[in-house]
Amino acid sequence: MTREAVGLGMTSQRTRARMVDRLREQGIRDEGVLAALGAVPRHLFVEEALASRAYEDTALPLGFAQTISQPFVVARMIEILREGRNGLGKTLEIGAGCGYQAAVLAQLTKDVYAVERIGSLLNRARLNMRAIQQFRVRLKHADGQLGLPEAAPFDTIIVAAAAQSVPPALLQQLALGGRMLLPLGSEDQYLTLIERCADVYVETRLDGVRFVPLLSGLVNEKE
Ligand code: SAH
């Protein structure tokens, strides 16, 4: 490794540690979640021109009118999903984008599946996983409204795009005792937690949020 590369790595580690301190100040309490965000080099997931802004607590453009999620929102969602439980178990992420949140999830549980409808973003997610040597995340080009029946049921489902209503396939693919967190709504969106106890689904409305919409069908264009 060149001296420059080592320098850059150290700078990014320090900046990332500051990001984690800020998340703690903003109220993230789960040290496991904070450690996971501290371990994933977010600058590798954003376009080079934006890398210097990678550790600001803000969503950044990914192209294709999509964004990489804000660190606080990633931390908050995973914290809610872990609260009072023994780990996340088998986890499905809908809307992988370039793979940042999936990489954070992979720090916390060994079984992570992530689906993305835009083919070129999914390819970028694959390259990013390779770049950080994260080989545990199973990425699939698929419409997440249908879930991922071949790998169901899931103990945890996390949705990174806002739906108008809860996709029924996701309810079916939630394991007994499982938890799903998704943004619901269009103009006014709220994080909604759904917990499955036998065939009863308990829904709780949480924080107001702003996500890109959950859309149907696949996009195949290549970069
Ligand atoms: N998880 C990403 C956030 C990406 S933004 C991160 O960590 O940064 C949300 C993503 O959801 C977009 O890439 C969008 O293409 C994708 N998406 C929207 N509707 C979808 C659907 N039905 N199935 C799969 N992905 C979807």
Explained architecture:
There is one protein chain. The protein has 223 residues and is α/β, with parallel strands linked by helices. The protein is 31% helix and 26% strand. It has a seven-stranded mixed β-sheet. Strands 1-2 form a two-stranded antiparallel sheet. Strand 4 (112-116), helix 5 and strand 5 form a beta-alpha-beta unit. Helix 1 (3-25) runs antiparallel to helix 2 (31-39). It is globular. The model is unreliable at 1-5 (pLDDT under 50). Bound molecules: S-adenosyl-L-homocysteine (SAH). Residues 66-69, 94-97, 100-101, 115-118, 121, 143-145, 160-161, 212, 214-215 line the site of S-adenosyl-L-homocysteine (SAH).
Write the layout of secondary structure elements.
Layout lengths: L2 H23 L5 H9 L20 E4 L2 E3 L2 H12 L8 E4 L5 H7 L5 E5 L2 H13 L5 E5 L12 E6 L8 H5 L1 E11 L4 E9 L2 E10 L14
Parallel strand pairs: 3-4, 3-6, 4-5, 6-7
Antiparallel strand pairs: 1-2, 7-8, 8-9
Helix pairs in contact: 1-2
The structure holds S-adenosyl-L-homocysteine.
